[in-house]
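[Discussion] Sanity-checking designs against the backbone

I'm trying to build intuition for which residues belong where. Below is a structure token string of 78 positions. I'd appreciate it if someone posts a full sequence so I can compare it with mine line by line.
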């Protein structure tokens, strides 16, 4: 009985928040957006390593196995 009451109260609260948020209008703004063309190679290396950390955390959260491929090396005779 208590769990049902709490579930109904939670649904009503969520509906109240959703009703309040439907009036919010966002505007398109380019401020704060960084394009890849504007980054240096040093910045790209830093972004790549940070993106790998974020991707690894996301995969860990959803129990997805991710293995980085190793780059193919040159043969011994070449």
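Best answer:
Here's mine. Compare freely.
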């Amino acid at each position: 009985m208590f769990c049902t009451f709490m579930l109904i109260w939670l649904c009503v609260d969520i509906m109240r928040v959703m009703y309040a948020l439907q009036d919010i209008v966002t505007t398109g703004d380019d401020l704060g957006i960084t394009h890849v063309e504007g980054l240096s190679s040093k910045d790209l290396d830093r972004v790549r390593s940070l993106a790998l950390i974020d991707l690894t955390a996301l995969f860990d959260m959803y129990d997805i196995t991710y293995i980085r491929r190793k780059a193919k090396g040159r043969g011994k005779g070449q």
